[in-house]
Write a structure and sequence with these properties.
Protein name: Pheromone binding protein 3
Radius of gyration: 15 Å
InterPro entries: PBP/GOBP, PBP_GOBP_sf
Oligomer: single chain
Helix content: over 70%
Pfam family, one: PBP_GOBP
Number of strands: 2
Distance between the termini: 10 Å
Shape: globular
Order of helices and strands: HHHHHEEHHH
GO molecular function: odorant binding
Keywords: Signal
């Protein structure tokens, strides 16, 4: 699970730092999430997130830095994750669809040849992280907190 999320963040950072144009970034994220570019593009457009934002977010996350824009960028990333989560049906508004999330994780585990004995661990983590955001009403915060929780 951590590996999958780390790969997602790495992919976003990679496409941003390698000078991949906007459409390339959309395409890379779409391929990773098994969505179409037409499904992903509105999420980028809605958040107004830029390659610079993604690079700064990755740097802040990796180095645990605080910058003037950190909260704004984190909010944009949370909104991007929420939008993508809704496209993957793991979120509805500010609620995590625990069963769908587990279904997707189980599928990823099979594709990545991760030991099946890890599934109960992943399921527990999803439950725990979903409980953490249960009372949060802002979907961007839900998505960002949920993903951070899954990564820790």
């Amino acid at each position: 699970m951590k590996l999958t999320l780390l790969l997602f963040f790495t992919l976003v950072t990679y496409v941003a730092t390698m000078g991949v144009e906007y459409e390339g970034m959309v395409e890379s994220i779409a391929n990773f999430l098994e969505l179409t570019k037409d499904e992903v593009r509105p999420c980028f457009n809605m958040t107004g997130i830029t390659q610079e934002d993604v690079m700064e977010f990755a740097q802040v996350k990796v180095d645990d830095l605080q910058t003037t824009n950190a909260n704004i960028i984190a909010s944009k990333m949370g909104c991007l994750m929420a939008c993508l989560g809704e496209k993957k049906e793991i979120m509805t508004d500010a609620r995590i669809n625990v069963d769908k999330t587990k279904e997707i994780i189980h599928s990823m585990v099979e594709k990545q040849n991760i030991r099946l004995s890890k599934l109960p661990e992943f399921d527990q983590k999803v439950d725990s992280c979903a409980n953490l955001v249960e009372t949060v009403t802002y979907k961007c915060e839900v998505a960002l907190t949920f993903v951070y929780c899954l990564c820790t």
